[in-house]
Amino acid sequence: SDALASTLASQGLISIVMQNIVVITLIVGALSMIIIFAKFSGIRSRSAGGQPI
Predict the structure, then answer these.
(1) How far apart are CA 36 and CA 16, in angstroms?
(2) pLDDT-derived band of residue 32, with 50, 70 and 90 as boundaries?
(3) What is the pLDDT of residue 39?
(4) 17 touches 24 (CB < 8 A)
(5) Which residues cross the membrane (predicted)?
(6) How do the domains of the chain map onto residue ranges?
(7) By the 8 A CB rule, do 27 and 20 touch?
(8) pLDDT of 6 higher than 60
């Protein structure tokens, strides 16, 4: 019954992730866009100073 309990626990986690996959995808996408735009703005401000990356 220990194997059954661990299987149910792992499948429960999987089902929770699959039910919230849209929210998780939106959060990950928003974070990645913020990071990308922060990198681009940092590169622009550094290149304006004349320092090569």
Answers:
(1) 29
(2) very high
(3) 87
(4) yes
(5) 12-38
(6) 22-48
(7) no
(8) yes
Query: Which value, to the nearest 10 degrees, does the dihedral of the CA atoms of residues 39, 42, 48, 53 take?
Result: -60
Residue identified by tokens 């089902």 is: 15
> What mean pLDDT do residues 1-25 have?
84
Four-residue CA torsion sign, 37, 31, 23, 7: positive
- Give the span between the Cα atoms of 31 and 41, in whole angstroms: 15
Compute, in degrees rounded to 10, the torsion defined by CA atoms 15, 18, 23, 28: 110
Residues 44 and 3: their CA atoms lie apart, in Å, by: 55
Instruction: Determine the Cα–Cα distance for residues 48 and 53; give it in Å rounded to an integer.
Output: 11
